[in-house]
């Protein structure tokens, strides 16, 4: 046999061996285990968990689509969710906090959606009231349940469901609240919305808050907030959570489902604000440079929030840092003199 034949035969044998090993590994993976070699050279089995999606979740793909939502933009009503699979939702929930500290976890049930559910769908056929939330609300924007009065007030004022408000606009809301609380100010929906306009579109899509250039004090969280549209799931209100989300007459404290008539805001005048709202607006207008929305949102996950706020202020400009420190000192003294205990502080 020639050396070339020998090399060919060796390569062929090696190829067959590799293919055989691959076939064996594929088979073992399918059986939930793989073969390995221990440090002693003895072969050993590594058991892998095999997860199979429940048959009822697979069957949902054959259900007919829900109708009656032609008023919603096609990219919204055609977007399915990753969380149609319960195993994916449970895995994500295991590593992401959703409920505020000190609040019982049984106020809501966090549930997957079906294969034909869409984020814009209403309460048709539901036996319990629910609303949708996006994964990014909790993982990136540090929103926690239940909502406070300020958040619910903004949703009511805009007449939108939580998922109908664009995540970038949620970031403005979160940053506004943390800034107000750090200065002993009471955040209010109309003081917040004073800085923005809205332009609802038809067919309905995500509502964005548009900064008023001359007075806006918060920069954009992201120039293009991506990869959030397929990460929604259901928040079902349980009996223990009704006081947080429902009024005494059973009506919801904010729109649970998408609406086809979000409110249009344009150049709200100072004269339309209450005296308390005017104080908040006037205080924030003192800042000269844009404030870092992303940095302020991250403070929600901070052990030392004031120190972190000052750090982000310094990055946005020394003037802002000096103003913040002066204002905080003044407002702290005023709060102590007035004996204020109802305004949350960090």
From TrEMBL:
Residues 1-18 have a biased composition (Low complexity). This is Transposase (putative) gypsy type domain-containing protein. Residues 137-199 form the Transposase (putative) gypsy type domain. It comes from the Eukaryota. Residues 19-30 have a biased composition (Basic and acidic residues). Residues 1-45 are annotated as: Disordered.
């Amino acid at each position: 046999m020639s050396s070339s034949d020998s090399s060919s035969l060796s390569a062929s044998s090696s190829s067959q061996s590799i293919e055989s090993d691959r076939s064996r590994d594929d088979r073992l993976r399918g059986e939930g285990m793989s073969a390995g070699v221990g440090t002693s050279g003895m072969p050993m089995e590594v058991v892998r968990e095999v997860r199979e999606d429940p048959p009822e979740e697979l069957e949902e793909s054959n259900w007919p689509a829900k109708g009656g939502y032609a008023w919603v933009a096609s990219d919204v009503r055609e977007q399915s969710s990753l969380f149609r699979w319960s195993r994916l939702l449970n895995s994500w929930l295991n590593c992401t906090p959703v409920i505020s500290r000190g609040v019982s976890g049984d106020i809501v049930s966090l549930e997957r959606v079906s294969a034909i559910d869409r984020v814009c769908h209403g309460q048709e056929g539901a036996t319990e009231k629910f609303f949708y939330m996006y994964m990014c609300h909790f993982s990136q924007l540090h929103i926690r349940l239940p909502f406070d009065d300020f958040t619910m007030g903004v949703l009511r004022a805009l007449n939108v469901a939580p998922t109908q408000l664009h995540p970038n606009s949620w970031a403005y809301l979160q940053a506004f609240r943390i800034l107000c609380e750090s200065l002993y100010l009471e955040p209010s929906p109309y003081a917040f919305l004073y800085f923005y306009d809205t332009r609802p579109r038809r067919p309905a899509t995500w509502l964005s808050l548009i900064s008023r250039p001359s007075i806006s004090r918060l920069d954009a969280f992201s120039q293009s907030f991506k990869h959030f549209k397929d990460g929604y799931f259901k928040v079902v209100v349980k009996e223990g959570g009704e006081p947080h989300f429902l009024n005494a007459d059973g009506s919801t404290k904010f729109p649970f489902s998408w609406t086809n008539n979000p409110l249009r805001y344009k150049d709200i005048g100072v004269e339309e604000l209450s005296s308390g709202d005017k104080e908040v607006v006037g205080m924030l207008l003192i800042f000269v440079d844009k404030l870092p929305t992303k940095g302020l949102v991250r403070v929600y996950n901070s052990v030392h929030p004031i120190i972190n706020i000052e750090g982000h202020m310094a990055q946005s400009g020394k003037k802002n840092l000096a103003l913040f420190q002066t204002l905080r000192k003044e407002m702290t003294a005023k709060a102590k003199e007035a004996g204020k205990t109802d305004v949350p502080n960090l």
